[in-house]
Every structure is written in C-alpha cells, then in structure tokens.
Design brief:
Elements (H helix, E strand, L loop, with lengths): L8 E4 L5 H11 L3 E6 L13 E2 L2 E2 H6 L3 E5 L5 H12 L3 E4 L5 H4 L4 H7 L4 E6 L14 H7 L2 H4 L14 H24 L4 E5 H8 L1 H10 L16 E5 L4 E5 L3 H11 L13 H6 L1 H12 L4 H10 L4 E3 L3 H4 L3 H5 L3 E6 L3 E6 L23 H7 L14
Parallel strand pairs: 1-2, 1-6, 2-5, 6-7, 7-8
Antiparallel strand pairs: 3-4, 9-10, 10-11, 12-13
Helix pairs in contact: 1-8, 6-9, 8-9
Length: 391
Amino acid sequence: MAGALAGLRVIDLSGHLSGPFCAMQLADHGADVIKVERPDGGDEARRMPPFVNGESAPFMVWNRNKRSVTLDLKDAADRGRFLALLETADVLLENYRPGTMDRLGLGYEALKVRFPLLIYCAISGFGQTGPERGRGGFDLMTQAMSGLMAVCGPADGPPHRLPIAISDVGAGLYAAIGILAAVEARHRTGRGQFVETSLFEAAMSLGVYEAAHYFTTDEKPPRIGQAHRGSSPYQVFKTADGWMTIGASQQNFWTRFCAILGVPELVQDPRFTTNAERVKHNDALVALLQARLETQPTAQWLSQLQEAGIPAAPVLTHDQVFTHPQTVARDMVVEVEHAKAGRSRTLGVAVKLSDTPGAVRRAAPALGQHTDEVLAELSRPRPKIAAAGED
C-alpha cells in the first residue's frame, strides 16, 4: 500500500541530524527522498560511532527509506545534474549556515524563478534573520541559549544538557510540519514557498511551562530537578529495588495514593490539601512519600497504583525499552537489510495512519548507492500525486 506522501519527491541536501530526521519523517510516509551528498565522504554523520562493518549505526537509524546520490555542487556538470533533479522535485531541504546556498547560486530567491512550485525548506542554528543568523548552531549550543539547559538538572547543580539531541530532533519535526503545511498551501495557491526553522526556536518552544512562568512573573524559572512546575506529586521516586514515576497530582488520585501508601492523614494536612499547596511544599511532601515508597519493590507499588487507576510507570533502560511488549506490539523495532552492514535493527514509524500507513521500506543507503539509478530516472516521466477521485 502506498504511503500518504507517495508521489512527493524531496531532494535532501542536509546533514548531521536535524535535516535528515525531517526527511526521514517524510520518507517513512512514502515520499521519495533523494539524499544528495558530497562525493568526498558525504554526510558528516557517516563518521559517528558505533560502526557496523564500517557503517555508522546512528546514521543508519535516521536515514532509512532514502536513496543516496553523490554530486559536487561546485562542479559545473554536477550542478547541471542537481538542477535537473530539481526539475522533478517538490521539496528541497538543506541545513547549511544561512547564506551558503546563496553563494552557490542555489538559494531560494534564485531557485524560485526557475522552479515556482518548489517548496524550499531551510533549517539553521538560529534562523535566517536576526543578529545571530550567521552563527553556526549545534544541539549543545542551542540547548544552552534556549533556556533548556538552565532549567535542567538538580536544583542545586550546574546547568545540565539533555542527553538526547532535543534541539535537532525538535527542529526536524517542526520542519516536517512546515513542509507539509506548504504542500497543502500549494494545492490552493499553485505556488511553492520558503519554509524555515531553527534549532534555537525549536528548543525554546519546548519550554512551555517555563515560558508561562516568565511571562507571568517576569522572573527566571528556578531549576527544580525532578519536580514539576504545576503538579505535585509528579516525579521520579526510589523504591526498594529501583525507580518509578508517579503522577498523583489530580485530587482523586491524591486521595487514593495516600490510602495506598498508608498515610491517609496527609490528605488533611494543610500543606497538601490542594495541588497548588502541594506544589508549594513539594520538597516536604516528597520526603514523606519517599520514606514510604522505599519500603516495597517497584512491581508491588505498580500493581496497587494501576489497580487504583493512578498514573505510574517503571523507569526502564533501553535494553528493557526495546524488548518491552508494548514496544513490540507497536512495531517500534524493525529489521532491515543494509547493503554493507547486513541485517540490522532500526526504530519503527511513530505516527500510525489507518489507510495509508508509513513503513520502513529500505535501510539507510551506502554513500552514492543510488547515483546511477536516480540519474537514469531523469529521462523518464515521474508519477505525480493523484488528485481526489482520480484513478
């Protein structure tokens, strides 16, 4: 069954994580993503460890469902081939520093004259405008400048980097949304447009509670460790044999939770009678709850809490995550056959569609694996997205 984006062709010039992650979302749902890479080594992510038969495992995770073509955009003949590819394309995606494509004569203002239907998407560190536009941006720097790092980590500790590349992944997801919005707009207007986002804005936009705090008080949000800014109890707790999360801030949950822990008197304690009061006195509350929770193992607490309908979950490590029955049931681990790495596993498709489901159809490409194949296709008509009612 064809994916929802079958017939959409994306030329992906991006590297590292943000752009390739965006392109992967489109490819998973049927878009024909052609990854254009430098002949002299390609995407820098190809050199990220660990490796399987010389192929980067991280690169393979976020570049599945794509075809790789090698072109040198500074070479006249290859530039001609690239422009021929754009003749067949719906979307061009890049994540260079602002101005790089303009210097090559391939920026949006130049291309839109020749390709008025083209949707040109640019991801950058800090955006195409503003005083920081020319600054290179990686996840580490944009986590720092977006405020995320300032509020992460223990309350009395230093700024803390999220170990996941949240700026990169967030920017990739926002770019995918922007591209799909532009595709929908093109159906109505008959014109392409310029779409852009940045790691800085993506990371900043994720701090929704922190924004609410600042906009209301004009004060910087304090670092609160595992606590939640608007709910209590709502955090990680230690048990007799591990760690678990409990979200019992809702008043009916709170009453049941106290009964299960054998501390019903806390319901009437003036410090804890409402969620707002519990947030205010969270440290004192957590100390009382923690003393009780450490008396029994995680599984025992989970059984009682789930029976009472109180949100709770164990803290799983990735070896547990990827073998968990829910992970398996949701097809979130998929096996593919890579041209060089052989049989390998990758993440499944996170967004499920009932009629046009996404799928992992092919492994990530080896560098230049599809150059001849793709260039040969330029002489043949390309299937278009069918309009409603067409056969």
